[in-house]
Write a structure and sequence with these properties.
With 328 residues, this protein is α/β, with parallel strands linked by helices. It is 34% helix and 27% strand. The chain folds into 2 domains: 174 residues, Rossmann fold; 70 residues, 2-Layer Sandwich (Alpha-Beta Plaits), CATH 3.30.70.100. The two termini are 31 Å apart. It is found in: Cell membrane. Its main location: membrane.
Length: 328
């Protein structure tokens, strides 16, 4: 098996901001690599380097065996890219958007039209294909953007947070499309902040923070690094949350996560159901009323929190704009 994408020691700085600090990535051919990280971690900058849009200050990278710096045109002929924001001309119809891309790839008029209709069918946009894209919903625009990335049937695809801003139904639909592409042999690098997305789609996952990889493995391997189970408790009275934390901390085998807004505690434990019973007895002894309680296995969210010290849902850096290179 060859590598569809390989990056070694990528470095990119913007003034005093280090966007990439020695990033290493490998995507074996025919697989999906999920790249996780908060806004500002370096995900988008990495994609821009690998897709020839940005030159790194140091390091090397290749796509489908072609050096990104030595032959950028060769790389561009083998990749498809769908960014965080749908690159759709809203004054053209869906068909015209795809037909235009085909002509830019020099597919020829007949082949471009045929490919446009084929992709509209594949992405469930056939009924809207002759409508101006300005009237499309967010989910339709995202699907059209992804269809555009596939016009030339690229063997390597880069999806940079492809489901950002979509409602749950549209996100699920997009996941089905991505699964179909992978089943057809496409190699894929997927950046995302949605841990469920990486869990469902990726063969391998890297966690990126501050421009470098801080963990790597399959979803199960990363969860195993965290270990144990999680006791999740929601108290009735927010004023009793601190006391609940004091009572349950001795049962924990790692840091207790307290969320004041949700009146909840997440307690890493070992011992399963017996620890759940112990926790309830302690809380009952101190008359700490509980609204909800559960025991669950680690998730990728727990992995992210353990590795970065931040919850993925609140990992945006102050003042960051994900579409600006200075803090990408």
């Amino acid at each position: 098996m060859t590598d569809a994408v390989r990056a070694e020691g990528l470095v990119k700085t913007y003034g005093k901001v280090s966007a990439l600090a020695g990033l290493d990535l490998v995507v074996p051919e025919g697989t999906v690599l999920g790249v996780l990280g908060p806004n500002g971690a370096g995900k988008t900058t990495a994609v821009k380097v690998l897709t020839t849009l940005v030159r790194p200050d140091a390091g090397r990278a290749s796509v489908a065996g072609i050096d990104v710096l030595a032959d950028p045109a060769g790389v561009r002929g083998l990749i498809g890219v769908s960014g965080q924001y749908a690159a759709v001309d809203e004054y053209l119809t869906g068909f015209e958007n795809l037909d235009m891309i085909g002509r830019l790839y020099h597919l020829g008029a007949r082949a471009s039209r045929a490919r446009a209709r084929e992709l509209l069918e594949q992405f469930d946009l056939a009924d809207a294909g002759d409508r101006v894209a300005k009237g499309y919903s967010g989910g339709m625009r995202r699907r059209l953007d992804l269809a555009g990335a596939l016009v030339a049937r690229p063997p390597v695809l880069f999806l940079d947070e492809p489901t950002t801003g979509l409602d749950p139904r549209s996100r699920t639909s997009m996941w089905e499309v991505i699964r179909g592409l992978v089943a057809g042999g496409t190699s894929l690098l997927l950046t995302t902040q949605y841990l469920e997305e990486a869990d469902l789609l990726a063969d391998n996952i890297v966690v990126v923070d501050h421009g470098r990889v801080i963990a790597e493995g399959s979803a199960d391997e990363l969860k195993a690094q965290v270990g144990g189970e999680r006791l999740q408790i929601t108290v009735s009275d927010p004023d009793r949350l601190a006391r609940a934390e004091e009572l349950l901390t001795p049962l924990a085998v790692g840091p207790v996560v307290r969320e004041d807004e949700r009146r909840s505690l997440l307690v890493p434990v070992s011992g399963g159901a017996s620890r759940l019973a112990d926790a309830l007895r302690l809380l009952d002894t101190e008359s700490v009323a509980v609204d909800d309680v559960g025991l669950r296995r680690p998730t990728l969210d727990d992995v992210f929190l353990s590795l970065t010290g931040r919850d993925s849902a609140a990992a945006t850096e102050p003042g960051h704009h994900s579409d600006t290179e200075a803090s990408a």
